[in-house]
Amino acid sequence: MRVGENWDVHAPWAQMVCTTQIPEDKLVKFYAISNEVLDESKATDDNYGSGVIPLPWRISFDKFGKYGVTDYIMEMVQHYMETILSNGNVKSNLDDIIPGGPHTHWHSRVVDAWIVSQKENDYIPVHAHDNQTESCKISGVLYLKVPEQIGWTREQIERKDSNEMKIRGGQNGQIVFTGVGGGDLFSTTTHWNVPPQQGWLYLFPSSLTHQVYPFKGEDERRGISLNIDVISTEQLQLIEEELKAQKEGLTYNDYKIDTEEDAKANSMGYKVKL
């Protein structure tokens, strides 16, 4: 990555986490989605709210369309892809590993989404998302509701005042990302503790392990988690060429599933016009 004249920075081990504050008009819609999903879950699930590891309440994709937030999610994913691809090592790696490279443009879609509603003493153990959903490459968490006793402002997080951290419970209710680092003074930290902030979205690689600490006190810590797949224009062209070679007379959205490649393309939702 070029950061100045005759000065390039290489970060081959970096895993980027990007954050953005959600516009108020979009935040209200995401909150409405979460209320709708939780209300439906209360009415149909006898185990609602039981246990210290909260159950994931799945969001049907039509709700994003219903509330008009699909384009916003895709726009943020596009920003994320543009950011990580500014690191030349990441781009060259994708071009080498994923068939069809060099890749010029990326398309994205949500492959899984769910509500996490945590109460006092609830926690989420160490996990990653890349083994949860097929073709999941980017994940996200969007904070909708944060108890007052664990909530932080952006200014507090940037200051990282040790006395303030102690007063507010230290790691109470924080999400903790675990990455590559910690080997010496010049490496990045192994763990990154992030206090939750209402109305903020975090996007990160699906392979990045993380966990959520429990908190003390009343109220609810609520968020939306996302798993997102990306595919390049060049990959879609390869799928198109393979289908053309195997099939004749197919129309858009009308596949015969005869091969493993066909089945995978269809199950992923990629509809290629022949």
Q: How far do the termini sit from each other?
A: 38 Å
Major sheet characteristics: 6 strands, antiparallel
The dominant shape is: globular
Which CATH top level class fits? Mainly Beta
Radius of gyration: 21 Å
CATH fold-level label: Jelly Rolls
CATH superfamily: q2cbj1_9rhob like domain
Count of alpha and pi helical runs: 8
Count of all domains = 1
Give the class from helix and strand content and strand pairing.
alpha+beta
Topology:
Layout: E1 2-4, E2 7-8, E3 18-21, H1 24-44, E4 57-58, H2 61-66, H3 70-85, H4 88-97, E5 106-118, E6 124-127, E7 138-145, H5 154-159, H6 162-167, E8 175-178, E9 191-194, E10 200-205, E11 209-212, E12 221-232, H7 233-246, H8 260-267
Antiparallel strand pairs: 1-2, 3-10, 4-5, 5-12, 6-11, 7-10, 7-12, 8-9, 8-11
Characterise this structure.
The protein has helices spanning 24-44, 61-66, 70-85, 88-97, 154-159, 162-167, 233-246, 260-267, and strands at 2-4, 7-8, 18-21, 57-58, 106-118, 124-127, 138-145, 175-178, 191-194, 200-205, 209-212, 221-232. It has 274 residues and is an alpha+beta fold. The chain has a single domain, classed as Jelly Rolls. Strands 3-10-7-12-5-4 form a six-stranded antiparallel beta sheet. Strands 6-11-8-9 form a four-stranded antiparallel beta sheet, with no helix packed on it. A hairpin with a 2-residue loop joins strand 1 and strand 2.
